[in-house]
Amino acid sequence: MINIKFILNRYKYFLISLLICIAIYIFDNNLGLDIFDSTKSNIIQMLSILPPVMILLGLLDVWVPREYFMKYMGSNSGILGIALSFLIAFFAAGPMYAAFPFTAVLIKKGVKFSNIIIFLNAWCVTKFSTLLFEIGALGYKFTIARLLIDVPGVIIMGYIVDYLVNKKK
């Protein structure tokens, strides 16, 4: 039997957003159509990115033993774990939402929480494709200056978040 209360609770934010979009469409057809076109475009983009990511993550999960992740990125990994977190993020491709399934695999494999936070932040600020674009658009001096600020900031943030999360436990 379908539990309507569970479904409504689970998808409440989606349903609220949908109702708001419908209300906007009723009051302004053009804006409503723009919203639905943008949503359709985003869904198509996600559906083109996530399946290959999930396949690669499934292979990674099966092929790379947990012990490797724990040895190189686990609680005793030190600078090597930080470097690997940056390296994986540097060569990553795709938007930020593609990082979250990978993060789930890292958690499952026993990676130190600070390295996971470093990975997520590094995904945002140190991806190779983003750096190339930034150098072309803003120049290498700006990019290097930003990296000199962001890289230590990402590491510090990873350890602060790790401390705060573990402090609550």
Explain this structure.
With 169 residues, the protein is an all-alpha fold. The protein has two domains: 1-50, no CATH class; 64-168, no CATH class. Helices cover 84% and strands 0% of the residues. It has nine helices and no strands. The protein has helices spanning 4-10, 12-27, 29-63, 66-73, 78-90, 99-108, 113-125, 128-138, 140-168. It starts with a helix and ends with a helix.
Q: Any descriptors?
A:
169 residues; mainly alpha; 2 domains; 9 helices; 84% helix; globular; cell membrane; DUF318
The helix/strand series, from N terminus to C terminus, equals HHHHHHHHH
Q: What is the makeup of the main sheet? A: none
Report low-confidence residues grouped into runs of 5 or more.
Answer: none
Q: What's the pLDDT, averaged over the residues?
A: 90
Q: In percent, how helical is the residue content?
A: over 70%
The computed structural class is mainly alpha
Shape: globular
The CA-CA distance between the termini, in Å, is 37 Å
Helical region count?
Answer: 9
Q: What's the number of extended β-strand segments?
A: 0
Q: What is the beta-strand fraction?
A: under 5%
The radius of gyration over CA amounts to: 20 Å
Number of domains: 2
